[in-house]
């Protein structure tokens, strides 16, 4: 996906009704020794980092349970859409663990330190509406009979992104992600570098031409 220029947006959904991702298989984990657990979690953390580093926007469609590593997967995405009936939580402390695939870092960046600490310390599960109220998800929708309401809303959101200039969207994502990790002056410099890369693109020229000619732009990602 990273190198496929035809990909504009990636939506993560589950094929299992009622479950986005339930996290690690604890029965499997119980059979591992300490070294194996450490290796497993390191690989999982690397996977989440790879997802977070995808150059195009990513959307998690949470139509059911997103627990432990399942919520960490959703947090690795840029945007999250949840059914109001979905259940989410970093429940690791209820099993003698702590989040190990990015949860302790991405959750506070998403909802703030205090809320993140409360959710992680208690291992509490929250529904889609509660997640929306604290900013954990971008949108919450009532579940439908098919059980894919969040996925349908995620597709609608993806279709809002699709017509926009692909390279500009990628540079916007890069500027936000890198800028959030540094002070604002450094972030401004990062924005400037991303903007400079966008200036010579054919899509920028097309956007200006379309505005002058009062028509919709036809972006090609170049």
Instruction: Note the total helix count.
Output: 10
Give the number of DSSP strands: 8
The CATH topology of the largest domain corresponds to 2-enoyl-CoA Hydratase, Chain A, domain 1
CATH architecture of the largest domain: Alpha-Beta Complex
Outline: globular
How confident overall, as mean pLDDT? 94
The CATH top-level class label of the largest domain: Alpha Beta
Instruction: List unreliable stretches of 5+ residues.
Output: none
| Total count of domains | 2
Sheet with the most strands, sense and barrel status: 4 strands, parallel
- Oligomer state equals single chain
Radius of gyration: 19 Å
CATH homologous superfamily grouping of the largest domain: 2-enoyl-CoA Hydratase, Chain A, domain 1
Question: How are helices and strands ordered from N to C?
Answer: EEHHEEHEEHHEHEHHHH
Estimated helix fraction? 40-55%
Structural class assignment: alpha/beta
How much of the residues is beta strand, in percent? 5-15%
User: CA-to-CA gap between the ends?
Assistant: 18 Å
Strand order in the largest sheet:
1-3-5-8
Protein name: Enoyl-CoA hydratase domain-containing protein 2, mitochondrial
GO molecular function: enoyl-CoA hydratase activity
Organism: Leptosomus discolor
Pfam family, one: ECH_1
How would you describe the overall organization of this protein?
This protein has a 4-stranded parallel beta sheet, sandwiched between helices. Strands 2-4-6-7 form a 4-stranded mixed beta sheet. The chain is an alpha/beta fold and 222 residues long. The protein starts with 9 loop residues before the first strand and ends in a 10-residue tail after the last helix. It has 10 helices and 8 strands. The protein has helices at 26-30, 34-52, 69-76, 103-111, 113-122, 128-133, 149-161, 166-179, 184-198, 202-212; strands at residues 10-12, 19-21, 58-62, 65-67, 79-83, 87-89, 126-127, 139-141. It has 2 domains: 10-162, 2-enoyl-CoA Hydratase, Chain A, domain 1 (Alpha-Beta Complex), CATH 3.90.226.10; 166-213, Lyase 2-enoyl-coa Hydratase, Chain  A, domain 2 (Orthogonal Bundle), CATH 1.10.12.
């Amino acid at each position: 996906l990273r190198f496929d220029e035809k990909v504009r947006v990636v939506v993560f959904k589950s094929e299992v009704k009622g479950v986005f991702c339930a996290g690690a298989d604890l029965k499997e984990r119980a059979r591992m020794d300490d070294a194996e657990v450490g290796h497993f979690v390191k690989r999982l953390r690397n996977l989440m980092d790879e997802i977070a580093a995808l150059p195009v926007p990513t959307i998690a469609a949470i139509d059911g349970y997103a627990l432990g590593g399942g919520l960490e997967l959703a947090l690795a995405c840029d945007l999250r859409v949840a059914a109001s009936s979905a259940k989410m939580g970093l429940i690791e402390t209820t099993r003698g663990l702590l989040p190990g695939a990015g949860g302790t870092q991405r959750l506070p960046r998403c909802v703030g330190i205090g809320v993140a600490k409360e959710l992680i310390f208690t291992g509490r599960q929250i529904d889609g509406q509660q997640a929306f109220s604290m900013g954990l998800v971008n949108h919450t929708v009532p579940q439908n009979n098919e059980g894919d309401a969040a996925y349908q809303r995620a597709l609608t959101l993806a279709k809002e992104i699709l017509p926009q200039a692909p390279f500009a969207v990628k540079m916007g994502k890069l500027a936000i992600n890198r800028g959030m990790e540094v002070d604002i002056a450094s972030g401004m410099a990062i924005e400037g570098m991303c903007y400079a890369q966008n200036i010579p693109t054919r899509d920028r020229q097309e956007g200006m031409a379309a505005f002058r000619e009062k028509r919709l732009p036809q972006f090609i990602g170049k």
